[in-house]
Amino acid sequence: MQDSSLIQKKVRAFVIIGILLLLLYGKNMLERKSFRSIGSAFTEVYNDRLVVEGYIFEISDDLFQIQKLVDHCNIDYDYSKVINEITQHENSILATIVDFEKTKLTDQEASYLADFKAIIQKDLVIKNYDLLYSDSSGVNREQVKIYDKKISQARGDLQNLSKIQMDEGEKVISKAKILINRSQIWAQFEVALLIILVVVMFLLLFRKSERNQGIV
Predict the structure, then answer these.
(1) Is the dihedral of CA 120, 67, 110, 44 positive or negative?
(2) Are strands 133-134 and 138-139 parallel, antiparallel or unpaired?
(3) Contact yes or no for 183/35 (Cβ under 8 A)
């Protein structure tokens, strides 16, 4: 009977140890998944938010240059090649938009970007300099106002796109913080499991040692 009871206690102890080891293994698997998620979150912040903010800055600069050319802001500037200058800036914007479109876009972001792209491709394409200026009447103020209005609309799209980068970036960072806090909780859980495992091993070995001494 005593041997049977001893065997049962040993089996119970080994079962407990096995469960604790399985819990530790499961915890490590979950923690690896969390770290991969954290890595993905920060990669997303960089690739889809910080890089895109750089695209928006480049596009804004080209748009500003287009507006200067349309408005004839610089009196000393040679406007004989203004159409080519505007076209170059527009092509630069469209090339940046191609890179922009390759990033992860929200539905709202895709809508603003599509509207902005349409303005550049359709509303701001100027093929004839006479639309802006003629020797007889000077600057075509009414037409320039129309272009300025479209440029203002395009700037509004850029501002909304920039705001989205901030909002989405904050969401991803908040998600990463949650994952980090969860990992810290799992780390504390692991320490507790290790302490329990050490206690079980100690009791198992200590009792066995006591029984051996009693037999002697």
Answers:
(1) positive
(2) antiparallel
(3) yes
Beta bridge partners of 134: 138
Reported confidence tier of residue 104, pLDDT bands at 50, 70, 90: confident
Residue 60 belongs to a domain:
no
Instruction: Answer yes or no: is pLDDT of 158 > 80.
Output: yes
Q: Answer yes or no: is 129 within a domain.
A: yes
Domain that holds residue 93: 65-215
- Reduced to 3 states, what is the DSSP secondary structure of residue 133? strand
pTM over 0.70: no
Quickly state the pLDDT bin for 216 (edges 50, 70, 90).
very low
State how many domains the chain has. Answer: 1
Please check whether residue 22 is in contact with residue 153, taking contact to mean a CB–CB distance below 8 angstroms: no
Convert 142-155 to b/e letters by CB count within 10 Å (16 or more is b).
eebeebeebbeebb
Specify if 26 maps to a domain: no
139 strand-pairing partners:
133
pLDDT tens, residue by residue, 48-84:
777 888 999 999 999 999 999 888 866 667 777 888 9
Tell me if 204 sits within 8 A of 10, measured CB to CB: yes
Read off the pLDDT of each residue in 101-113 and give the average, rounded to a whole number.
91
Q: Give pairs for 102-108: CB < 8 Å, separation 24+.
A: 103/47, 103/48, 103/51, 103/52, 104/44, 104/47, 104/48, 106/164, 106/168, 108/160, 108/164
